[in-house]
Structures are given as structure tokens and as C-alpha cells.
Specification:
mainly alpha, Four Helix Bundle (Hemerythrin (Met), subunit A), two-stranded antiparallel ribbon, 10 helices, 2 strands
């Protein structure tokens, strides 16, 4: 196994174990020899993985302290690896509510900027994503992929480097939100005009209208998620492929 893959796999295994609670917060992880034996890697690989987890805020190490798991409040929740590990372990209801609140803070401001700064290339990309959503509704296909592409296109169009970095970390989380909405009967068809309203406002260079339109869209998604949370239905797993829409059945023509 290449060294890079070995380091990456070990980082993932330890990261997932921490996020899943197999190594409890506030306590030390197993000593190096134990981890080497369990994972079948050298001490060098374990040490490199631990350094990576320290950088992501999951571990702390020091004299007389050992190597301990930090409380989850100190984890770097904008790190794509941390997001992926949490997604594999299962997104909690609290986590989804945090996401909805974050979206309501970040996306409206980003869309306002997009209405002021979007380039022709940005608009073409978002328009293509919208076309993909529309086609998935009309002919079946991966609606969620294009929904995610639409929102990430809006975030990129604001041309703020920090927001763009945030969009990368939010991608996996946003997919869960979109899958919940997509699972509702007629959810995508009802959502599509709301997306069109956002895009039209950005094209028209109307920041206030764009902000209001994205708020309507976010609040509709929040209602979908709250209904799922209240019903205690199983949440979508990001380890599984995204839900595919089925092509609508055509009416039978008598003949």
C-alpha cells in the first residue's frame, strides 16, 4: 500500500472512531503499540495520523496529558474530513438543526453578494445546474447532484474566498438537506420555482430580492427537515448514493 494511502486510511479510521465515540471525549486514545497492532501500521504512520487529528481539533497532546480526545465543540466542523466522518457515523438531529441555522446566516448574505458580483461564467454554471434539476424532474435522474451544484454555484459567485471554502465543507451536509426535501412527494417540483426566483433575482442584479428569495427557499427546506425530525424517520445516509427521481408516468393513450 502506498505510504500516502496508508496515512490517509489511518487518519480516516482514527477520525471515524473518535467521531463515533469509540474513543470517548476527554479520555486518552489507546497507546501507540496498541494502535499499531489494531491497524497494522507503523508508529510513524500513527504519529502522522495523530498530528492530522490534532490539526483538525479532535485531539490534544502534551506532557503528563497523553493524547486525549477534545470535546466536540472544539472540533473543526468546517474541515471536510470531519464532516465526512460525521456523515458516515450518522448525522444527528442537533447537527441538522445547526446546519439549517448556519444556512440562514450564510446563504442570504452570500446571495446578496452574488447578485452584485456574479460573472457571466458564474451565471452560466448556475443556469446549467438549474437545467439539470428541471431535467431530473421531467425525465428522472439525480436531482440532488444538480441542487447541490446550484447552491455551491451561488456561493462561489459571491467571490469571497472564505465563503467558497465554507461551501466545500457544507457540501456533504447540504446534500442531506436536499435529500430530505427530495424524498417528499412533489418536493422537487414545488422547490423548482423557488430556485428560479433566486436565479432570476441574481441575473437581474437585485440583491434585496435575491436575499428574500433564498430565505423563502431555506425556510421551505427547514420545514421539510423539521417534519422528518418530528416523525423520527430514519435520516438519509451520505454513504449511500443520492436518491434518484423516477421519470413521471405518461398517460396511456387509448388505441
Amino acid at each position: 500500500m502506498p505510504i500516502k494511502n496508508m496515512h490517509g486510511n489511518t487518519l480516516d479510521l482514527l477520525g471515524e472512531a473518535i467521531v463515533a465515540g469509540r474513543y470517548p471525549q476527554g479520555l486518552s486514545i489507546p497507546p501507540e503499540p496498541t494502535l499499531c497492532e489494531e491497524l497494522g501500521v507503523s508508529r510513524t504512520v500513527i504519529r502522522e495520523a495523530v498530528k492530522g487529528l490534532i490539526a483538525k481539533g479532535l485531539l490534544i497532546t502534551g506532557p503528563k496529558l497523553g493524547t486525549r480526545v477534545l470535546p466536540e465543540e472544539q472540533w473543526n466542523w468546517f474541515d471536510p474530513d470531519v464532516v465526512a466522518w460525521q456523515s458516515k457515523c450518522g448525522l444527528t438531529r442537533e447537527y441538522l438543526r445547526d446546519l439549517q441555522e448556519l444556512r440562514r446566516v450564510v446563504e442570504p448574505a452570500a446571495v446578496r453578494l452574488a447578485a452584485e458580483r456574479a460573472t457571466a461564467t458564474d451565471l452560466a454554471e448556475i443556469e446549467a445546474a438549474y437545467a439539470g434539476m428541471k431535467d431530473a424532474i421531467e425525465n428522472g435522474g439525480d436531482y440532488v447532484k444538480y441542487d447541490l451544484r446550484f447552491h455551491q454555484g451561488l456561493l462561489r459567485a459571491c467571490h469571497n474566498r472564505m465563503v467558497v471554502q465554507m461551501s466545500k465543507a457544507l457540501g456533504a451536509l447540504l446534500r442531506t438537506s436536499f435529500e430530505i426535501s427530495t424524498s417528499r412527494p412533489d418536493g422537487p417540483a414545488q422547490s423548482l420555482p423557488l430556485h428560479r426566483a433566486v436565479l432570476d433575482a441574481v441575473i437581474a442584479r437585485a440583491p434585496a430580492r435575491a436575499e428574500q428569495a433564498i430565505l423563502v427557499l431555506i425556510d421551505a427546506a427547514r420545514e421539510d427537515i423539521e417534519q422528518v425530525l418530528v416523525s423520527r424517520r430514519k435520516l438519509p445516509s451520505l454513504a449511500a448514493p443520492a436518491l434518484q427521481l423516477k421519470a413521471p408516468k405518461l398517460p396511456r393513450v387509448p388505441g
